Amino acid sequence: MKLAETELPVSQQNKNIIRLATAQALAGANSVVFYATGAIVGNTIAPSSTLATLPVTVFVLGMAACILPFGALARRHGRRAAFMTGTALGVLTGLTAALAVVLGTFTLFCLAAFMGGAYAAVALSFRFAATDGVGKERRARALSLVMGGGVAAGVLGPMLVTATLDLWPAHTFAVTFLAQAAVAALSALVLMGVTSPPPSPEATSGGRPLSDIVRQPGFARTVFGGAISYMVMNFLMTAAPLSMHMHGISLQASNLGLQWHVIAMYGPGFFTGKLINRFGANQVGAAGLLITALSVAAGLSGTGVVHYWVSLILLGLGWNFGFTGASAKIIDFHRPEEKNRVQSLNDFIVFGVMIVGSFSSGALLNAFGWNAVLWGSLVPVGVAFLAIIHKGVRGVR
């Protein structure tokens, strides 16, 4: 029997969306801080320069490793338990990283990176939490609005780094990580006001086996489309700054391009939901993959700063359409009592695939150059686009 989820009052739905969007901005700023500083700190305190980027890799591993446990926690004890645990780890991330910088301990810094990834993992569930207790007609809109909160992260994160990096000259970035801990604590306070329907007994023990859920027509193609949207975005974004450096583009110009990339990733969230309601999640996801292909074309057209900027902005837009479309479609495949298991499995696959992109992009760039990275991304984009089109013809349950 399919169970109906209790619908919250519209006023509470709106409060949840505002709080979750704010928490998305704060959590996103924490991630931006670590991505911006992790390799720099690693290069300073790592026993070998070849390990400089290991903290960023450990951060991504922390995300993938903690998605399923947080999903199980939310399933048994509710979203708030997962939120509070995740933000507590966010606070510990900042405190541990600051201590690692002061002591010059690389292992401790990698531990902080793993906890930071765990915090980022729970932040992934904010977009799905916005759909709890929301009528079907509002779900895509709620999900996309929460993702729109990431726009502030693209501004707040770099500002946090710039304002704090030199406050303790003897230990660069130590104060930055303390500020990161404070931001995570603020996020916890914001999330305490989020109200979700309580988990029912069926939510902890009911629902269909995962094997039955994943065999639904279109499920695998939906997950694949979202995973490829995220993997290719990360694949190109990871390689782009180094490629710009190799082509003599200044760090300031590179950072500006990345900042606009982040804004392009999250800015469309304020209207993507409306597009999904009007045209369908499949069509929006397919459009995202086409925009990603245009990003590749822009990158292949030259190596000037404008080429990189246009490519990065289109890459952000493509990610938003592709990933939001897939996320909205996943909701159609699960019942209320199955949501935490299915959503966690989806994100686990997405970030498992993303790890492959993180590991391979730098090696491919150094071995064969920027154009090889671009051409290499077109194959999975094309396959995912064809899968979504085929799915769109057949439909899902």
Automatic annotation (TrEMBL):
InterPro entries: MFS, MFS_dom, MFS_trans_sf
Record has Membrane as a keyword: yes
Record-linked PROSITE patterns: MFS (PS50850)
SUPFAM superfamilies per UniProt: MFS general substrate transporter
Molecular function GO labels: transmembrane transporter activity
Major facilitator superfamily (MFS) profile domain residues: 16-394
Transmembrane segments: 21-46, 52-74, 81-100, 106-130, 142-161, 173-197, 218-238, 258-277, 284-302, 308-328, 348-368, 374-393
Entry keywords, A to Z: Cell membrane, Membrane, Transmembrane, Transmembrane helix
Record carries keyword DNA damage: no
Name of the molecule in the record: Predicted arabinose efflux permease, MFS family
Species for this entry: Kosakonia oryzendophytica
